[in-house]
Amino acid sequence: MAIPGSYASLKGFTVPTTGQGRAVIGWFPSEEDTFNIFVYPDGTQAYPGFSENQMRVGFHKQVDSPKEMLIWSPEEQITRTLRLNKSSDPIRWQALTRPLPYWDHGGPVPPSTPEGPTLSFKKQSWGQWIDKYYLNKDEFWSVFKGKVVLFNWVTH
Fold first, then answer.
1. What is the per-residue pLDDT for 64?
2. So where are the chain's domains?
3. Taking the complete model, does pTM exceed 0.70, yes or no?
4. Closest to 113 (Cα-Cα) out of 142, 136, 146, 77
5. Burial, 61: exposed, middle or buried (Cβ in 10 Å; 0-12, 13-18, 19+)?
6. Element (H, E) at 144
7. Confidence of residue 74 (pLDDT cuts 50, 70, 90)
């Protein structure tokens, strides 16, 4: 199964070093939608106690219409749906892990890094759920590995 929606690139995306312990990044996957992404900690280091194979993602919204963040397995199956109906709903959190790198025992090949889960986003418009954006698994983990990341949907 392919992940529905429009591919939202994170290619070349980096978490800036702010010196404040967190970074706030504006993300504009289209002309109609805007997200603020809060990343802890800032820079390239991992969150204390996290490895590069762990992540914690949160979902919040500041707009009226219902939104969803879906967690997809590496096999592109939905494993969890985090739905927010009102902007007053609390942040929804999910821990993500990807398998540890493994060695190809057929020869002296460097360890390969397995794919991890990824995210997609949906919104409700005129009573219909619309698949909007999905993140490439490799780009997602390259940027946010070892982090606590909050996706806050701030415009329709």
1. 86
2. 23-100+111-155
3. yes
4. 142
5. buried
6. helix 137-144
7. confident
